[in-house]
Amino acid sequence: MARTLKNRFESRFLIRFLESPTLFASCFTSSRSLQTLAYEEVQTSGDRESESTALILHGLLGSGRNWRSFSRSLASSLSVSSASDWKMILVDLRNHGRSAEVEGLNPPHDLVNSAKDLADLVKASGWNWPDVVIGHSLGGKVALQFMESCARGDFGESASPPKQLWVLDSVPGEVKAEKSDGEVEKVLKTLQSLPSSIPSRKWLVDRMVELGFSRSLSEWIGSNLKRSGDSETWTFNLDGAVQMFNSYRETSYWSLLENPPKETEINFVIAEKSDRWDNDTTKRLETIANQRQNVAEGKVATHLLRNSGHWVHTDNPKGLLEIVSPNFFSPHE
């Protein structure tokens, strides 16, 4: 079965990226404009009459490639269950991944401009407006801002809000300093204190472990280095990422959840072992979800992901897929 699916999909992809039994990712940076975000593309088989688009948004200091494995699994599942073909766009947000090298993504580096970047990418690429946006952590709030901006008409009359959002372990309100464990702030301050050129990945990991960070987190941070001459530099724009994190903390979307656009659905996935949530936030979100159960009027739903911390796509990707796939938007329902 895996070989059959592979043969069906292979001709649809432009460039192979990592071996997979069912799907390959085609990766390219848009050449239509120097000011559009970098992205990769994962598609289902391509033999159906219609095609729908989903944007996949990573978290702080990450990149689209973090979501390759999950996106392939989701596309494989949808190739069987969905009546539409799906094109999944794994975006590198501004200041992150290959988009950190893109010219023209000017300050302020906030959620509003991050959402506008997505709209500019859709327009420049000639895609239909996305039916679904999936965002993790920082990307979750960018997704909420994208829906709000679409509904408000910020991107023009042709823009329509996504039919469905998946906000993965991202709190919708402001993140108060007293309600945060401060780990993210500590990581950012530590990175800002390091030299701009890092001697080696091993040096970085050892240094961060010495400063009290876990080895797994330190190695993940190290994966964001790239070779530059005899040393290593960051794949992200650190100062810009810090500004985006500040915008993430300061921005609230409770009003959007209380009055979502009609014919839309906003799904929150809360990781069971995540440290991002407090009881007041969870209760407020569940209260709104109980009041907003009709898609026609704008629906809000919550899902609990068992056996997972904040890194939902690596802690429990199977459980995440079992939540997302059967509840994924179907354009023909």
Summary, kept brief:
The chain is 38% helix and 17% strand. With 333 residues, it is α/β, with parallel strands linked by helices. The chain folds into 2 domains: 249 residues, Rossmann fold (3-Layer(aba) Sandwich); 67 residues, no CATH class.
Structure description:
- Residues 55-321 form the AB hydrolase-1 domain.
- Belongs to the peptidase S33 family.
- The chain has 333 residues and is α/β, with parallel strands linked by helices.
- It has two domains: 2-173 and 251-327, Alpha/Beta hydrolase fold, catalytic domain (Rossmann fold), CATH 3.40.50; 178-244, no CATH class.
- It has helices at residues 2-10, 68-81, 111-125, 138-152, 183-193, 201-210, 215-222, 238-250, 254-258, 279-291, 312-315, 317-324; strands at residues 25-29, 38-43, 51-57, 85-91, 132-136, 164-168, 225-228, 231-234, 265-271, 299-305.
- An eight-stranded mixed beta sheet has the order 1-2-4-3-5-6-9-10, sandwiched between helices.
- Helix 3 (111-125) packs across helix 4 (138-152) and helix 6 (201-210) runs antiparallel to helix 7.
- The protein is globular and about 55 Å long.
- The protein starts with a helix and ends in a 9-residue tail after the last helix.
